[in-house]
Amino acid sequence: MKKLFVMLLALIMCLNLAACGSANTEKNSAEAATTQNANVIKEGEGAANSNDLAAVDSGYVMDTINIAQASLTSLDPMEGSVFHGMDEVYEFLYGFDGVGGELYAILADDTRGAFGGYDHEPDSSDYTVYIHDNIYDHNGNHITASDVAFSYTYRFENYSNSWPAFESVEAVDDTTVLFHFNRELTGVSDFAAYFYRVYVVSEQSFHDSPSSLITDMCGTGPYKFVSFTPDSELKLVKNENYWQTDETNLHQWQRANVENIVYKVIAESSQQVVALQTGQVDIVDGVDGAYIGDLTTNYNYKAYNYSSNMLMFMLPNCNPDNICSDINMRLAIFYAIDTDGCEAAYQGQTSALDVLAIDSFSDYDPAWETIDSYCTNTNVELSKQYQEAAGYNGEPITLMCMNMDMFSLAAQVIQNQLVEAGINAQLASYDGATFHSVMADPSEWDILVNCANAYDYNISFWDAVFNTAQTTNGLTKNFIDDPEWADMLDKLILEEYHTTENMTEWWQHALDNAYFMPIMQWTSNAVYSSKIEAFGMNYGNVITPGACVYAAE
After folding, report:
1. pTM above 0.85, yes or no
2. What is the pLDDT of residue 37?
3. CA 101, CA 251: separation in Å to the nearest integer?
4. 46 with 543: CB under 8 angstroms?
């Protein structure tokens, strides 16, 4: 199986619409040839995790790093988005050590409590979190439990999104916070989902801010706000009075190895490359692969090719009135698709999938790659046999996607492949809001291309896509009515059932019933100055300049 690279931040728009691959081929399982350029670093080869960074960190502090940013209009820490610079200024109770990494305490005091910063009684829906007593924000305000309660309450009431278990939070004393949920957090990622998702701010600083921290910043992190011009420039400076001075508790992601960080808004990707070539910026994330050779060879930049946490997949409409309710039709469609062709449409910035899972997560099983199915084989002749078994007579099959290149390029390739196999696929693309509205109507589509992501476990990804609790009809989003399969998923979310054996059973059941098809993952290139010896990206694949290791000048 190809190595799993997943983040697509810059797409190449050139597309060859011809279907790729032969009629009867085993999907390519060899990894793409690695470059001979020593400045191009593949994921797993570079020091991009905290342990590797810490091992080579000399403590040298660079003066200034300039980073290109495509757009930046709001600095709102409560909205929930993670952008470059946010984690340098603001902090969570807990953090993730990279995508799929372990939780570590930040504001939470892991020397207290039975569980590394918190206490919880079995069968209770209450959780008590303890914070350090020496936390101060950039305005000098002492951060206490009441500020934690304020931050969570404000976020919940104004930007709650999906907080199904959260009820309320209160300060018991200055360093003790009591969280009330409507159930015990027994899911494998439940705790992390709530305790690493809210930036803690001082209630006083929030109210003192003329913009309610939308166009200015005040957090507790290792960097302080200097100035901001929307869609132009954001400047940060090292916080010389950072509250965490205990080296034994200072995680690599909390370090400040550069004095000044400047984010420069450069909207066009081609102009970002020019900014690298002319030395205006030191780092650009999401560089088109076509420029990598020139930048690394002629300009002595380094390039880090990394994977993220987003997967593309196809869902068939399993409503009883739909043609895809027949498993023969689903198999006819899936066996006609060569995901290597989808990969080719993105000119090397994606990788075809054999498994709907991320191989860097701890609950991934490589054995899934060896299961013989439509995921690992393209077979047009077999597709035609299944078409005959389904009684298919050339009826139009509506293939739906969002009208963004990250979806439509793959959808066009799939449409051509289906047509080549004798399936009358017709493409329908919509803006995001309309797509989700149409998706809820089983009479409007037959198959669709979509994507989803996760930060910790593959079961979190599966749950996000197929949990029947997310719909009002008790079915999955693609109208699967299979209580046995749904029950497997409900149990897999729980820690006691979250085993490789149980995950394999769920995966095999999905394959046996052709409930979905993995398509591909995206990859991206972060290009950075050779003055950076070791490059760091955090849990959201967001560049963390303070954690990087720099060469002494």
Report:
1. no
2. 63
3. 13
4. no
